[in-house]
Design a protein that fits this description.
The chain is an alpha+beta fold. It is built from nine helices and 18 strands. The chain has one domain: Jelly Rolls (Sandwich). Bound molecules: 2-acetamido-2-deoxy-beta-D-glucopyranose (NAG) (3 copies). The site of one 2-acetamido-2-deoxy-beta-D-glucopyranose (NAG) has 2 residues, from loops. This is Probable prolyl 4-hydroxylase 7. GO terms for molecular function: iron ion binding; L-ascorbic acid binding; procollagen-proline 4-dioxygenase activity.
């Protein structure tokens, strides 16, 4: 599954650019007014200019946005989103066309291979093992024992739970990658709502707060909280440890994401990168993944690569490292994997994705979209193309739920 491109059905069409409509209209109107309305005309003209200004300002602001990454995934997990954008720049009003120096001088770093090197932590050399596949592919998978200490695991779980608690004050807003996905989810849950595009908050594919709250009891999801390089001391030490142990370069890494899976929740089969036709791939996609289990899981919760015949049982502190792209930057379909449902216990992991080709905004906390309107500390749940385990709760907002996102991504490259 996660294979081909899938994702986002959005049609770029239907939203008429708001700016166009508003800005033209007032102009034509006024001309014909007699002198008395002069002030009115001037006022209208000023408003029109202001509207134009705001429109251009905002569009320059939102285009170059990036995604985060999220693992987030979209459709079939496309991390594409995550990768996409590199050029985020902060919109200065006189933006004109000067290229900011950090953009002009940006040198992308390429990550086309990795190699496990035994490192020592507190005098102990960490043991690692390659996981053998019954099939030949460009994917190499390893486990490294005690990659995080019990203390580190416990602290990461504690921080994660703290954020869940803060965000639990508000019900999440539910977002879907498309209307058909919403329909499929409702059907599967035997919920008899008749839904149409009108049920989405304008400009997004999210449901409003009250509808989201109504649906909440019927859905299950995993929970993800994220932090970015440099936001705490651990992030720096951890990125260095990964680099020493695997050769995965810090500057090719994205955010750090902690995810928890309650009983009954897993995550469907997907690849961490988007599979394209050979040679047509997006190099700013996820080359490799470093996943560490933060505690044991009594039953279930394994990470399985069904096509490679590899299955890893969660064990506290154990790192699972694999590449999803080959040396030429093609996403390897055989890297397909899934998180088995937790049957007993509670699964916690921390993951970081490493990109084949780095980009300017990689590893930087992306700006948040203005839509939908939401409270502070209101979480988001994103569900993509329906399949078991396709909904994920996030403390972080990105652009996956904005209807024209895909069109924007195309313009951004
Ligand atoms: C990028 O590479 C060029 C050529 O090697 C170098 O002159 C420049 O300083 C580098 N820029 C950055 C931001 O490292
Ligand atoms: C929220 O969405 C539902 C379903 O579209 C709609 O019936 C309801 O009126 C909306 N509520 C608000 C407050 O907009
Ligand atoms: C590899 O092993 C898995 C699990 O044992 C199996 O489902 C798959 O068909 C195998 N693939 C090949 C090519 O033997």
């Amino acid at each position: 599954m996660a294979s081909n491109v899938s994702r986002r059905t959005n049609k770029k069409s239907n939203s008429i650019k708001k700016g166009d409509a508003t800005s033209n209209q007032p102009k034509t109107k006024k001309k014909s007014h007699p002198g008395k309305a002069k002030y009115l005309v001037i006022c209208l003209a000023l408003i029109a200019v202001a509207v134009c200004f705001i429109y251009f300002y905002r569009s320059s602001e939102s285009k170059p946005l990036m995604k985060s990454d999220s693992p987030k995934q979209k459709g079939k997990r496309s991390s594409k989103s995550t990768t996409s954008t590199d050029k985020t720049r902060s919109p200065t009003k006189d933006d004109a066309k000067e290229i900011p120096p950090e953009l002009k001088d940006f040198n992308a770093s390429i990550q086309k291979e990795f190699k496990i090197t035994p490192i020592k932590i507190e005098g102990q050399t960490l043991k690692f093992q390659e996981l053998k596949s019954n099939l030949s592919s460009s994917v190499r998978a390893y486990v490294i024992e005690n990659f995080l200490s019990d203390f580190e695991c416990d602290n990461l779980m504690r921080v994660h739970k703290k954020y869940l608690e803060i965000f639990s004050k508000n019900d999440p807003i539910l977002c879907f990658d498309s209307l058909p996905t919403l329909k499929k989810n409702l059907k599967e849950l035997k919920l008899k709502y008749k839904v149409s595009n009108k049920d989405f908050i304008v400009g997004t594919t999210c449901l409003n707060e009250s509808f989201s709250s109504q649906l909440k009891p019927h859905f299950k999801w995993s929970y993800s909280t994220a932090f970015y390089p440099g936001e705490n001391k651990f992030s720096t030490a951890y990125a260095e440890r990964i680099q020493d142990a695997t050769g995965l370069k810090q500057q090719n890494g994205g955010k750090f994401q902690i995810t928890s899976y309650p009983i009954g929740v897993g995550y469907k089969s997907h690849t961490d990168c988007i599979v394209y036709e050979k040679g047509k791939g997006e190099l700013r996609d996820r080359y490799a993944t470093v996943l560490v289990y933060l505690q044991d899981v009594e039953e279930g919760g394994e990470t399985e690569f069904p096509l490679l015949g590899i299955k890893v049982k969660p064990k506290k502190g154990l790192a699972l490292v694999w590449n999803s792209m080959d040396q030429d930057g093609n996403c390897e379909p055989l890297s397909l994997h899934d998180a088995k449902k937790v049957k007993k216990g509670h699964k916690y992991i921390i993951q970081r994705w490493y990109y084949y080709k780095s980009f300017l905004t990689l590893g930087k906390r992306p700006p948040e979209p203005s839509l939908p309107k939401r409270k502070r500390e209101q979480p988001r749940v994103s569900c993509d193309e329906y399949e078991q385990g396709s909904c994920r709760w996030y403390d972080e907002w990105n652009y996956d739920h904005i209807k024209e996102y895909a069109a924007n991504v195309r313009n951004m490259a």
